[in-house]
Amino acid sequence: MSCHAASPSSSSQPSSLAPAPPQLRSQPATDAGPLSSEHESSDTPSQSAQHSQPKSAAEQQPASQQEPVSPQPATSAASPPGAETAFTPGLEGASRRMLFNRISKRYDELNDRLSFGQHWVWKRMAVKWSNARRGHKVLDVCCGSGDIGLLLADVVGPQGQVVGLDFASDMLADAANRQRALEAQRPATKQHTPIQWVQGDAMDLPFGSGEFHAATMGYGLRNVASIPAAMAELHRVLKPGGKVAILDFNNSQDPLVDRVQAFFLESIVVPAAREYGLEAEYKYLRPSIKNFPTGREQEALAKAAGFQDVVHYPIGFGLMGVLVATKGRN
User: Fold this and answer.
1) How far apart are alpha carbons 215 and 246 in whole angstroms?
2) Cα-to-chain-centroid distance, residue 32
3) Which residues contact residue 152 at a Cβ distance below 8 angstroms, ignoring those fewer than 6 apart?
4) Which of 115, 129, 140, 184 fits 3 for a cystine, CB–CB 3.0-4.6 Å?
């Protein structure tokens, strides 16, 4: 939610610095996105050892080639997985995954409408702060429908490579469709940046250590069950000197900003989502933000994961924030 209606997520438990929500999904979160130049799935094998167990051939295929994942059945007639059970111990993973799959068809439209287009500004800031460069191999965790991944593709170019990872299959399908649509609009002679859409877990990334020059995460850190685990994985897969830029709602401690954010979500975002039959899904945003670590707490979590030169930047009048962290060269 980007104001960004897209990342309805409940949150991730902070760590010792903030109360932690129950164990969340067994897969990563998501963000959104169209716009940029993206491209063919990259098949470039990683030369570093794989961290996780080897995936099957089907699991290794780009989302556009995989069989769609069927939503999990309701666990009970009284409380089916979804927004209502997003904070229920044992149901968080299935609930949040289904939530994102449900909103996928309206995700981009709501992002543009509810942020007045500003989510593109914030996402471009995250891409810039990630220090991605021409020819780099970069990772976008919780990629959603591909906004940040597509922006990264423009930056790294045909000699680079983009990998977008998310836990929601419908979001990944949208990202692959948008990539194909963008490529179809370009001259046949224009080279495309290799892009791969991968379904996976932000807390157990299926990539080798030191594999990426830069990484981003947009509106996804709130949705993981363990923020320390997700931070540690981002640190692991980055090359020495690599940066990560994490964009999300800001859990501001300024009473005025907090009141403005609450008013915006409750009086504008939720009513707008109601028009699309997604009221329950977007009511999820406010509690997820209040459970999210503050900027200072995020800095502490990043340092505990091994990052250096860590700074959290409030943006969008304090409503949003970007955590920028660098992996040491030693």
Assistant:
1) 8
2) 8
3) 36, 127, 130, 132, 138, 140, 162, 216
4) 115
Structure tokens at 155: 């930056």
Q: pLDDT grade, residue 69 (50/70/90)?
A: very low
Give me the phi and psi of 19, to 5 degrees please.
Answer: -60, 140
Q: How far apart are CA 264 and CA 169, in angstroms?
A: 29
Q: 330: buried, middle or exposed (CB in 10 Å: 19+, 13-18, 0-12)?
A: exposed
Could you give the strand order of the β-sheet that contains 161-166, starting from the edge strand earlier in sequence? 195-199, 161-166, 137-141, 212-218, 238-249, 320-327, 307-315
Residue 158 class from Cβ within 10 Å (0-12 exposed, 13-18 middle, 19+ buried)?
middle
**What would the two tokens of residue 78 be?**
């009284």
Q: Which two tokens stand for residue 153?
A: 């593709």
The answer to whether 126 and 247 are in contact (CB under 8 A) is yes
Residue located via tokens 């666990």: 75
Dist. CA 166–CA 62, nearest whole Å: 12
The DSSP output letter for 15 is B
